From TrEMBL:
It comes from the Bacteria. Pfam families: CarboxypepD_reg (PF13620). This is Carboxypeptidase regulatory-like domain-containing protein. Residues 1-18 form the signal peptide. The lineage of its organism: Bacteria, Pseudomonadati, Bacteroidota, Cytophagia, Cytophagales.
Amino acid sequence: MHIRLLFLFLLISFAAKAQNITSTIRGTIKDADTGVPLAGANVQLSPLQKGNVTDASGAFRFDNLASGRYFLTVSFVGYDKLAVPEILLESGKESVQDLKLGIHSGELAEATVVSSRPVAFNSVQAITIEQTLRYAATYLDPARVTTSFAGVATTNDQANGLVIRGNSPNSMQWRLEGVEIVNPNHLSNAGTFSDRATQTGGGVNILSTQLLGTSYFLTGAFPAQYGNALSGVLDMNLRKGNDEKTEFTAQAGLIGLDLAAEGPFSKKSRASYLANYRYSFTGLLGAMGVNFGGEDIRFQDFSFNINLPTVKAGTFTFFGLGGISSNTFNADTDTTTWEFEKDRQDIIYKNKMGAAGATHRVSLGSRSSLNSTIVASGLKMSRSGFLVNPSNVDEKSLFERDEQTKGRISFSSILTYRFSEKSRLKTGLYATWQTDGIASPDISSKVMNKVDGFIIQPFASWNYNVSSRLSTEIGVHNLYYTTSKSNSIEPRAAVRFQVSTSQQVSFSYGLHSQLQLQQVYISGKNQDSPLRDNLFLGPNKSHHFVFGYQKNFSHSTYLKVEVYDQELYNIPVSAANGSFSTLNLVETFIDQKLSDTGRGRNYGVEVTFQKLLTGQYYYVVSGSLYSATYLGADGIRRKSRFDGRHTFSFTGGKEFKSGENTWGVNAKILWIGGFRETPINVEASTFENKTLYEENQAFSLKMKDYFRPDLRIYWKKSRAKYSRTLALDMQNVSGTKNEAYSYFDTFQKQVVRKDQLGLIPVLSYRWEF
């Protein structure tokens, strides 16, 4: 009897304990155009089939929920239905959803998205923090998530520089809270041929994923509000901190040590904060004397977001991020180990980046809203190379020096006005003061050449629903640069026809332009007196055409097909006869006069079949076939550097839940056509003792196809007041030796092929409470 009572007591105690392992899903529902709260909106939670109705402030709440995956569906009379999948609820951490509904625009089945209406009719993908935590080998970097999308590849395993639809990584743009910023990456020289800094890529994003809300990745025919980009835009948005409960996250792994905190400033207001600090694990090992193949890699960063809502004056936010990183390579003092030219060099690379800004969002009534943002961002990169004397390793001589600076102060103000349920106008202005500097490559000179100027970009976009099936968008964007006195008026248009409640076809067109890279404006063999003619080059331009088809099979599975054509012109090429074009430029300097008479063409077809995470499994199968060519000053059409011909990606995973434990197995397989390179002139390289190319055979060699399988295994454990996740990521689990580039090695006196990274295991532990 006593044994039975004891057993019953233990059973009841265990059940009570299990019942305490719960958390909350809550949030607000607002009008996407005006920001006005929607009271009385219906909110359904699956798979529990629970329902709720928003209160006068547009708020809803589901308490005492077991940890796991949930699916929200929101509906309101006169508005599009919204489905929010893949919500991960963990014990010790609330899930706060700030959702926006758009006015009813047609008969398509409910939109399966993660915030408001999609920002474009075509070529747009949402990226969530949950994806960065679940997909294999993302290293908590939103840019690495994009390789699961059709038509996207990285230039090198070591970096997140993105080749989008055959365009150079320099053709994309980073945005924060809707405005352009400088390159927000640590170690922007990672994975480059010359070891010099790139303009858009790097080893890892400085902004911690802990601060990210839903970000948008656009790859072509952008709406009118986007400018100064040709291939893509990664628009990162910050989430606000929990405004009711203080929460913490700690994570340790090979990438770094993360500490995050969020919560309300007081119980009497909805003001909240969110902050994160990260220090690289490799930096800790470096401090203890451990290096990786002679390299000492270190980085650290801090980011924050403060949200201050008011009763009548709208919502203010103040945010910032900053990071420093370095990569030091020291030659081995044992000269008998030297095999390549780099082995006899000391190389010091340093990178500093920071950004700070504020936003103001205010409703101007039942029809309009005004959103304003100001962000200042800056970047400084330096690299010094020293040759070590083999007869005396303590004797070193400086043989190359690079230094680049970038600064941006960007302001935007956007007014949204809804004339009726069918008609909406969005108009605004982007104004940016920018400065770029490049130090003379001559080691005897200390001159820093700079170019400054204003970029003025007004725009207007009008959406009109002709009928319940036909939606249109017409807009115009203008790009004016005060330094080169160049002006580009760019029409944009899109139309979407809903064939049925589960199918739609769409077409988008846009004329897009992008200013030249700083090494194009500041160029010349002797940068003490740069070629001023290149300073007055106009922007690159491109006509984008995109035709899309989408078929929804359910609220979690869909097929999307897009056919695109990009006609590029006004491309700087050699003023003399030759094969050079800036379309192939990544990080090297320019030492010749250029003429903007070049052209290019990228076209292809992309297919994506995706099932979101429902029923404890998900997958994304995407691929593309494409062509990327260009015309140089010699009039010969050649395949461009990034003409890989095809991309393929499979991303998928399965979760297994048992009580308080959740196991997850995730995989990603990349199969990408090899990029192209130019043959090396061995005889000339031997004579000049540096890598020289057969320029008349530019990009005639195709590297081998790139193949990489990644694997992520995780184990989540829930407790009453916290949860923890133990994960193992393995990049390139097969150890495939993918080609990176070839160069003439001055130590071996022959052409050497360099491979990309092999197997990279990353163990991490995450604790949320």
